[in-house]
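Q: My collaborator sent me two sequences in one message, no labels, and asked for predicted structures for both. Can we handle them in order? The first one she listed is below.
A: Yes, handling them in the order given. First sequence, followed by its structure tokens:
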Amino acid sequence: MALSIASLSHQRILEERNEFQVVEKSVFVLVRVPKCGSTTLSTLFREAYPEAHHFVINGRGFGYEQLTGIEKWRETRKFHRKLRKEIGCRTPEAAWETIDATSRQDDIVRGHFSYDEVKLREAAAKFVTLLRDPVARLYSDYRYTRQGFLNKPFTSKLYHSGRQAAAGRYSFEGYLDFLEERGFRYGEFLTHYTVGNADRSDPAQFLLDTYYLVGTVENLSAFRARFEEKTGRPARDTRQNVTQGDAPAEMSAAARQRAEGFCAQDIEFYHAVTRLLAHN
């Protein structure tokens, strides 16, 4: 098996495991939807599987296609830098091949990537994700993105003109205006990340049929119980990384109504998933 694409560190992992032969294995694939308890999810698996090796890989990000000019160049450079740092590869294709070659049973692949971006061949993927009320997720994303912009040095703010700058400069409703005007399909955020872009007749049922484990931020206790039942491992309460002031109760009635219309597709998907979870 050719391993020229692997980083030196991952080559050493492979040599130590003596796994040059093809073996049947499955790995956990944590689809970490931004602002949906993704840090909590990673910590839970890290503590429950201390022996596992973690592969961190991130996608280009939802809305990358809408970027232009220096903003797109900056995001592309950041994407490739992270890929080289975390996996030791220059392309996503090479990174997934490296994960296939070096992973072992119950290793963990995690990152902000979508279902469509997972390209495993030798290892079977046990998909895991957490969902969140779409309006709460969108508002939390706005607050998080706004904080990131406001914390930048003054000179750095001058050349920012994209989504982060809009969050930093506009109200929540102004931020929604920006997303709509530029074609950012943030109202389909949960669906895009967890079931991909394919036209599915019942995306909620597809999610539960395809994923090893699904839960919601609003009911983490039920998620931990299902985790313990399926894995036989303890699941400590690990809720982390809550953005200060991201409670949707802060929104005005008009802003909430606007957000509900913006997130209509994801709201339908989220409620369908929660209904299915309640009956499983």
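Q: And the one she listed second?
A: Here it is, processed independently of the first:
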Amino acid sequence: MRRGVFFSLRSLLAKRERPESSLGKTLWFGLVVFSLAACGKKEAVIANVGPLSITQADFQKALSEVDLGYQNYVMTPNGRRQFLDILIRDKLELAAAQASKVSQSPYYLKEASRIKEEEKLRLHEALKYLLIQDWEKNLRDTRITSVSENEAKSYWKRHPYEVVFSQILVSSPKEAETLLKKVRRGANFARLAREHSLDSGSAIKGGKMPSALYGEIIPELQDLIFQMRVGELSGPIKTKFGYHVIRKDSQRKVSFEKYKDRFIQILEKQKLDDYLQSLQKKFPVEIIDEQFK
């Protein structure tokens, strides 16, 4: 490793952006050509550091993780060698660490075990997510939950409005009633929501909820909110989340073309919910823990 190279690979890591300029595209193409030319053999080795090797694949992976400007510099002979020196430094540290007693220290072994378990869990969750996503896609492909444009348009004709409402969510009907009375006497709704609401996501926004179409609000609140007048207050309303004080902030008619995808998603979810309900005959649900019944 040459003197004067004190950078580590970690200090260069940054999210890579694909170049857009013609010069950037040319340099990117050069990197690809350089990579392909050097990878004629499987796992071609660039350098050895004791028992460890730096392969062309190692080089390209590390290069893909650094800033674009530095990638362009690595296209030059000096840049290429300097980047290799950085990889050599990291491999040298790794080789020394692996050969030391640190690799058998209680702390290292404990942390390594923890990381392996976390990675195992992340892999399990990722595979589960992938399986469910592919299963849902298959339901759409086989027309079990697919929604046609005509179905979506018919739904829009029945429910053409988008609403915005604010809420204060609390744990008891008495507290909800007290807050409702305060608002009706002129207290600031947003301030009370920030101070009392259990829904932290909306509380920091003064209770304001995201705009919603019919089908995007929980059933216990949905019909009520769409029937309310703009500016009207209501509550306490009990749901599985607690007790709500509601204020309707706005309502407007939306165009089908602009909101078509959202209407399709609403209907797909409804069809999926119905299908999942039917599956409970095949996969019975039994709540074991008494506190959840």
